[in-house]
Design goal:
Elements lengths: L12 H9 L2 H17 L9 E5 L5 H8 L3 E6 L2 H13 L6 E5 L13 E7 L8 H8 L3 E12 L1 H10 L3 H5 L18 H10 L3 E8 L8 H6 L2 H11 L11 E7 L3
Parallel strand pairs: 1-2, 1-4, 2-3, 4-5
Antiparallel strand pairs: 5-7, 6-7
Length: about 260
C-alpha cells in the first residue's frame, strides 16, 4: 500500500485514549519504553535534558519525563491530540515545562532550530507516507552524541498475529494495513528495513525491545484472570529475547548519534 499523505488523528483521539492508555497494553508500552531509556540514556532519571517528542500524541510518555524535570517540546499534526496533551500536563501542573507545537514532523524546521539531547519518535513511522525520508529529516534535531528513541509497528508481528488468528485471506491478499479509520496503522514497517535505515544514518543501536510480545495472543477471558504484575514481568522478560522480540506488535530501538 502506498500512502498519499500522513495520517492525522483528529478523528481518532478519543478511541486512542480509550483503547491504548486505558488498558494493560498501554502500560506495557510505557514500561518497556521507560526501562529501555533508563538503561541507555544517562541522566534520564535525573532531569535537565532537552527532549523533543516528535508525534507526541496525547503526551502520556512525555509526562513521565516532565516529572523528572526535563525540558520538553511536543509536536503533533493533530490539534485534537495536542489539546489532550495540554490538558494532561495542566492537570498535573507541569504545563510550564513543555512547549507545544501543532505541526507535522516534516514542518518542524519552521518552528524550531535547536538540537536536542533526546528525540522521541514513538508509533509514528507506521502512519507516514514517506517514513524513511521523514526519519532522515528528524536526525537534524539530535545533538552530536544525542539519542533517538524510536518505536514502530512491526509488519512481521502483524503477519504473525494474522497467521495465528487464522486470517489467511489477509495474508494471501496482502491486506494488512489499516485504512486510516481505525487504530491499525496504514503503513506497518518491516523491521529489517528500519534497522537498515538506522544503520545508514550512522546511528549506533544501544538496545532493541519488543513491545507486546505475547499480550495480543491472549484471549480476552484469560486476560481477566492474569494479574497485571505477572503480565508486565513476563513481557519485560521476553521483550529482548529472540524470536519473541521480532514477533512483537511494536519494536523499540534506542540509538545514539555520533559525537
Amino acid at each position: 500500500m502506498t500512502l498519499k499523505q500522513d495520517q492525522n488523528f483528529d478523528n481518532l483521539s478519543s478511541r486512542f485514549r480509550k483503547n491504548i492508555y486505558n488498558t494493560a497494553k498501554g502500560q506495557i508500552r510505557l514500561n518497556i519504553l521507560w526501562r529501555d531509556l533508563v538503561e541507555t540514556v544517562p541522566a534520564i532519571e535525573n532531569g535537565g535534558l532537552s527532549i523533543l517528542d516528535a508525534g507526541a500524541g496525547q503526551g502520556n510518555f512525555s509526562l513521565q519525563l516532565a516529572e523528572k524535570n526535563h525540558q520538553l517540546t511536543l509536536c503533533d499534526l493533530s490539534a485534537t491530540m495536542l489539546d489532550d496533551a495540554r490538558a494532561l500536563f495542566k492537570e498535573n501542573h507541569l504545563e510550564q515545562a513543555v512547549r507545544f507545537i501543532n505541526c507535522s514532523v516534516q514542518d518542524l524546521s519552521s518552528h524550531i532550530s535547536e538540537k536536542y539531547d533526546v528525540v522521541l519518535f514513538h508509533a509514528v513511522l507506521e502512519w507516514l507516507a514517506e517514513p524513511e525520508k521523514t526519519l532522515k529529516q528528524l536526525l537534524q534535531y539530535i545533538k552530536p552524541g544525542g539519542y533517538l528513541s524510536i518505536m514502530f509497528y512491526s509488519r512481521t508481528g502483524l503477519i504473525y498475529q494474522n497467521l495465528v488468528m487464522g486470517n489467511f485471506d489477509n495474508i494471501n491478499n496482502q491486506s494488512l494495513a489499516g485504512e486510516g479509520k481505525t487504530l491499525t496503522p496504514t503503513n506497518p514497517q518491516d523491521p529489517a528495513e528500519v534497522y537498515q535505515w538506522l544503520d545508514a544514518l550512522g546511528l549506533k543501536t544501544l538496545c532493541k525491545s519488543g513491545v507486546r510480545v505475547f499480550y495480543d495472543g491472549i484471549s480476552r477471558e484469560r486476560r481477566k484472570q492474569i494479574s497485571h504484575e505477572e503480565l508486565y514481568e513476563l513481557e519485560n522478560k521476553f521483550s529482548r529475547q529472540e524470536p519473541y522480540c521480532s514477533l512483537a506488535r511494536y519494536i523499540h530501538v534506542v540509538c545514539q548519534k555520533k559525537a
